[in-house]
Amino acid sequence: MLQVHNHNELSAQVHEWKRQGLTIAFVPTMGNLHEGHLSLLRLGREQADKLVSSIFVNPLQFAPHEDLDNYPRTLEQDCKALMEHDCDLVYLPTDRDLYPQGLQQTTTVHVPDITEDFEGRFRPGHLDGVSTIVLKLFNLVQPNVAVFGKKDYQQWRMIEKMVQDLNLPIDVIAGETVRDPDGLAMSSRNQFLSVTERKTANQLQSLLVQAREKIRNGEVSAESICQQAAQQLQRRGFEVDYFDFCNRDTLAPLQGKSPAVLLAAARLGNTRLIDNIEVD
Ligand code: PAF
User: Which of 133, 138, 158, 187 best tests ligand 1's pocket when mutated (most atoms within 8 Å of CB)?
Assistant: First the structure.
């Protein structure tokens, strides 16, 4: 596996593969790889001749009070996992390689509408940081296919929209959320949960599943089902940012009977958890 630290080297390799007529699948990450990432790598591996990944804890997507400095970094272990998953190249840029003028001076990308609510409301600037870095990485890697996890549902849908709006010749595909046996969605941040918090953490998914069943049965309005679920989470010690449902493709308020998704984000102690479930 090639390990590349600067964008000129990356572009040269990509250019060479393109010259040979080879296709590229791309799985961007922030490292600290767990089974969720590995499932995306396996999906990527099936899609193209070359599999490229990146490990970059992107400072532009963290607000000043967030956990940029504490974000888990496990480079050696990650590179081993990438090699085991037959990754051809990993891009390991420095901040300077991607933001040579500094963060304040860089051009950013804003994807409208789909980013206004949910993470956009509770983490201002976060999604712009993600769209900006992803577009930069797409420009460098020039993938035919890019793979994102459904766990970050809004992120995935936002990138789909960006690719469509900007006519990027990339197929965005999504991998299913990978869960611990008790249902908790895998996330690099789960390791920050205390033992007691970890025991409660799977309630987020349980309540999403229960809410989906109640919506399917049409018992009461979806709004009140979501409100009740949020209250139950609060009683169990979560601080809820949102527990809501919306149109699955646009994340706009649901109109009529279009396919929906329930999205939830809540904090347990210092750890913020997000999860979702699609509702047919
Ligand atoms: O989902 C992530 O790990 C990050 O948001 C991404 C897509 C790698 C961009 O930094």
Answer: 133
